[in-house]
Here is the input.
Amino acid sequence: MVKVTYEELPRILTIEEAIAAESFLDSTPLCLEKGDLKAGFDESDHLLEGEMRVGGQEHFYLETQTSIAVPKGEDGEMELFVSTQNPTLTQLLVARALGVPRNRIVVRTKRMGGAFGGKETRNCPLTSVVAVAATKVGKPVRCMLDRDEDMTSTGTRVTRSSLKKSAASLSHFLSSAELTSGLFALGFLFLLFFFPQVLEVAIFHSDNCYLIPSIRLRGYVCKTNIPSNTAFRGFGGPQGMLFTESWMSDVASTCGISQKQVREINFYHEGDLTHFNQELVSCHIRRIWNELLEKCRYEERKQQVECFNSENRWKKRGIALTPTKFGISFTATFLNQAGALVHVYGDGSVLVTHGGTEMGQGLHTKMVQVAARSFGIPVSKIHISETSTNTVANTSPTAASASSDLNGMAVKIACEQILERLKPYQMENPKGSWEEWVSAAYFDRVNLSANGFYKTPDLTYDWKTNKGRPFNYFCFGAGCSEVEIDCLTGDHQVLRTDIVMDVGTSLNPAIDIGQVEGAFVQGLGLFTIEELRYSQSGAPWTTGPGAYKIPGFADIPVEFYVHLLRSAPNEKAVYSSKAVGEPPLFLASSVFYAIKDAITSARRDAGVEGIFRLDSPATSERIRMACVDKFTEQFTKQRDPSVKEFNVYP
Here is the structure.
């Protein structure tokens, strides 16, 4: 019954095409500058220029987008069971779609089968459609996407391409750096607010762990005609840091010093100011670095790698060290808030509700531990049922690695309120039990419920003046990986990985080590084997496990060691802990640069010296073609440059 008339318009599929067409979300770039850039370049001994690209990544959570809408039949009320990181945004958009106030909509989330940022906003279009359908038919409606539907429609990690220019002195200090970047953005209009924030995080993390006296960063959000990107674990940070490590790698090669030494020379010290002028407090990177070098026996293994490479032409090994510094807080300041509701029942059992959602990261377990520690009772007495908008209102999304910090403090504050009300009964019966104190308070008509609220203090930043404090604190870590590549096929294997991670005083070491391992493996996929492909019309080809490969059992390091930094309490978060969700992901870049180290040896055997470009992910094709030899030269000579590649790699 509908007749559609349309015409084909020019397509923009890559960042390069967007830049050429000036297809930007905002024609004015986001800029950050510090120091005298011109003087730094003029006074330097070496000037390096280059370009690099880091690809996107599919979330590939175990459970696809899922929503159930149950109409209540009274005053527009509706109950929704949704796999979402963001119940409040879901509530807001469903209420708008149905034309009712938000107090008529209850969103409930028991748990998710994974999310990684992909359910922060992308569940909302599906949930809104389901809610409208349920309202129309007056019955519950459920929808769960198939894997191909999910991958086609929900978006991926933001892709980034950058032009870099850096300078170094003979003392091997990085004196100046300039970076111009483009990031993908497109799609549902109400989601466009994400991309300036991703760009901000990328710019904030473009120093990684290094003091750069003079720096200029410019970023554009590019509009293309492929499916839009969305939030993903790291939220721009890994993309920003990968280019910084590329600077350091090229500076080391140009100056003729080791990759280890150039990083040590340029590391931040305690009290240094970042390029956005935030002072570094409890800067543990040098301590972490030295501990990693000792645990992984770097110098010994580096010699073993060199010995192996001298004896083998078509098999090469590489080893690389990578540090990380990750800021913890939402860059959108208003999101740094959390609430909790704690009920103590007459039998002494405790029900805790907070604003965070459980997606397999162990958040509920940590919140139970916080409540148990606050009350001084066993965890067996505490239960968390679910996350819901009718128990804790106006919640922030479970994202930015800040959920344990925010919700943990809210739970602690609520528990402390109840403890204060129980004090008279504890003093009256100091040898009594928890149950006796609670019972006495109940019969004395004392309120045994409390609402806790917390907001991260002193967060502010002004882009115009480059002043403020955008992050509450920083997490530090370092990783060392050793790989072996097959120069004829481009295949690689990770032989060993060592990680030292700063998590403060861990709330739960078992969970935190699991998070470090999981983040590393997800980063391993980002930097090596996960590659998005699109047709010439912009349609995604990688829409299922048949065409898109995530790391499996054979891809993880043969030897894998994770160490948590000891005696490093963090006074900025609940019980001196630190965030752990996103910071370790970038340490997987140690595999990327170990691959590059192995390729360097292969190129040297072929008589090719000097720095070279290797884009991420380091797939078998890219590794093979970077290992220059007579076979790759034949391919290069035979290839017709006028023929455009059929595969598009945004």
